[in-house]
Amino acid sequence: MAEHSRGNRRYTRRETLGMAAAASIAATGVAASTTYAAPMLNFRQDPVTLEFWGGEPEESGPGALVEAFNESHPDIQVTYTRYVNDDTGNTQLDTALQGGTPIDVVQMYGNPRLAQRIQAGAVADLSAYIEQEQPIADWLADEPEAAFGNDTGTYAIACVREPVVIFANQTLLDNAGVTVSENWTTDDFVALSAELSGDFAYGAYAPPDIARQILGSNSWYKEGATESNFDDPAFRQSWETHRTMIEEGSSFPWTDVLARNLRVYQQNLYLTEQIAFWPTAFWVMRYINDEEEFPHDFITTTLPLPVPPDADPVYNPGITGNWITMNPSSEKQDAAWEFMKFRITDGAQYYLAAGKQPAFPGTDQATVAAGLMGENPEERYDVEAFERVAFDPNVILTSDTVLVAGAEIQQIVQQTTDRYLIGEIDIDQCVTEIKTQADEAIAAAGA
User: Whole-model pTM?
Assistant: First the structure.
């Protein structure tokens, strides 16, 4: 029974980040130690080597991050190991953590997997460290979506802020005589996508996640998380809009997306001018900037997301993420925290070239913009449009904190909507199957 209760824990943002260190240790089940209970940097007698695992290629930030940290911290030397952020790579990571591989710091991706690892005791509570680091504590108090935890502690801190925007091929827009208003609506997006479609191009890859824009965080669940929320009209509206656009030829055919694995390689469509509107996040800028691998001669402009009808407030489906975590089995936790602080703050700049906007607000806007757009940005971007949209202070990001059966529901939604978007089932069957199966998954998680 105790195990079932633990599995049903509702993961929520903590109202107070600071906790007593002893409480932190008791909550996570970590044996008491002077290193963890009182982070006083007692590792400095001899050089310490840390093992850092993450999902990015070394050249996409981790290599430069580790090099800079090692140079500035001669008493702590970090070694980086990449695991691929897919099912196979995450299984490799889980096996390593469970098998006692000496890992000290891990960057994790996706709230469902993070929650599962917290539940399994594979992630350390950071509360005692956070409360002693005032700039980070103040930031997390102001932006609680950048911390992840539950009523026992805070286990992860976001390194990256990922709002969703529309990247658009300005040349295609100009050739079609299309001008997009900054206050455009979902109906405008659908109409302009149809106008931009032709024999060899589609107006859009897909519409934005309309349900998420309307419902915000934790949209999959009704209050209390004992039942799914997929009977909310926003989901039907979102899926129907996408299917209608496919049928009308203004959104890329989903049969091709599945057959060619284009969900993963959307950049191939955009940078070969097969789509005009691309709802996505900043991490794809690494492809736009790579003119050797993806040569193109058009300018990318940046547009805010179109607003669905009756959405108030309007949420951005983007998230905070790329969670930095500590292994509770690490024997070098003070040193690990020193490295984690660097990754969150000064070290965030080394991921800009990979399209990772820092979550911590300490990096100035000019540095972030220059790092994201790369050298000679005017050759690829409408720079003014990017800066206006990218740094819009009114964007409300989403961050799921209720994750009951989250991994199972994610799979249910994807598999069933795939069937709907290729015309295998109709919208009523799509909604019914997702609702029924999600409810069953939630009930099973609470059994």
Answer: 0.83
